[in-house]
Design brief:
By secondary structure, the protein is mainly alpha-helical. 72% of the residues lie in helices and 5% in strands. The protein has one domain. The protein contains twelve helices and two strands. The protein has a two-stranded antiparallel sheet with strand order 1-2. The two termini are 13 Å apart.
């Protein structure tokens, strides 16, 4: 188990240093293509909306199950060639399921544009990582959108895949990414996906349930280390986390809001349509660009603390 934790820590370091090179095909992109193809096939075979409720089970069953099977077979095949090839493949595949470097880079790109007083480019950069309309946002709203995205993805893009890698290595970590990708593509409660995507959305909620709550422990420790307001962070999590439309994402958003003494949530526009997101935290002050860099630092240190905790716990279990 300790050796397995070492592989996961190395995978974390690979992501931190290398990230996702564009010249290599990213597994999540491949998964997304197969989701699109399967959705078209399902809609063709089950053209009536009432049929899609049951057909929606096929998406997680085939995509998640297929992803696990393919990755497991790849690692098994690599092991037949050489044990170290299987280890290297396992480490690389796990590294592709986490996005510490990518998430930090995306947040810092927006931050740099704001620091250069380039609102146009800041809006464009934010528009690449959020679904809301960004064309009319001022500096504070751009900062809010960036903080919310980085904070929310601490669970989805980092802790959850690491959690499942601990349990089942690269196959289970990649299966989780398939769950998460399904949710981001079809897990919407709108007319198009309310029947086809319901199972994918529910599975994502279930998959993130434990990791989201484990993240709270690591995040509060980081907030304490960084001398932010840990007491207010805990209070805000307990009071506001469940206001979030997701049963899991609100924990990190509320924690960051409380730690920094800001209020997240509020009015957003999607395709020109207003949407009021539940507010988390208290508006002690206006959100500024520096809140982005503080959130990125919290995110990166939370990932490190979680990985280091895995090593420590497995070491103690293994050698006692």
């Amino acid at each position: 188990m300790f050796i397995h934790a070492i592989y996961i820590f190395i995978a974390y370091l690979v992501d931190l240093v290398v990230g996702d090179p564009r010249f290599l095909p990213h597994p999540v992109v491949i998964i997304g293509k197969y989701i699109s193809r399967l959705e078209k096939l399902i809609r063709k075979v089950f053209p009536k909306e009432e049929q899609l409720k049951r057909a929606g089970l096929l998406l997680p069953l085939l995509i998640v199950g297929g992803t696990y099977l393919v990755v497991a077979l790849l690692i098994y095949g690599a092991g037949l060639i050489h044990d170290w090839l299987a280890v290297a493949l396992e480490i690389w595949l796990i590294s592709t399921t986490i996005a510490v470097k990518g998430l930090g880079k995306a947040g810092m790109e927006v931050y740099q544009h704001l620091k250069n007083n380039n609102l146009t480019e800041a809006r464009k950069s934010l528009g690449m990582i959020v679904g809301r309309d960004t064309e009319q946002l001022d500096e504070s709203e751009i900062s809010r959108g960036t903080v919310e995205t980085v904070a929310e993805n601490i669970v989805d893009a980092i802790i959850s895949p690491l959690f499942f890698a601990v349990i089942g290595g690269a196959p289970l970590a990649m299966a989780y990414r398939a769950v998460n990708t399904l949710d981001s593509m079809v897990g919407y409660k709108n007319e198009k996906y309310q029947n086809l995507g319901w199972a994918s959305a529910r599975l994502d909620d279930v998959a993130n349930f434990i990791p989201a709550r484990l993240t709270v422990v690591a995040l509060l420790f980081v907030v304490w280390i960084k001398a932010f307001n840990v007491r207010n962070a805990l209070k805000t999590i307990l009071r506001d986390a469940r206001k979030h439309p997701s049963p899991n994402s609100g924990f990190t958003e509320a924690g960051v809001a409380g730690a920094l003494g800001i209020q997240l949530g509020g009015l957003n526009y999607y395709g020109g349509i207003a949407s009021n997101r539940a507010k988390m935290g208290d508006p002690y002050r206006k959100i500024i660009a520096d809140d982005i860099i503080n959130t990125v630092r919290i995110m990166m240190l939370t990932a490190f603390v979680f990985c280091l905790s895995l090593l420590t716990i497995t070491f103690v279990i293994n050698f006692n």
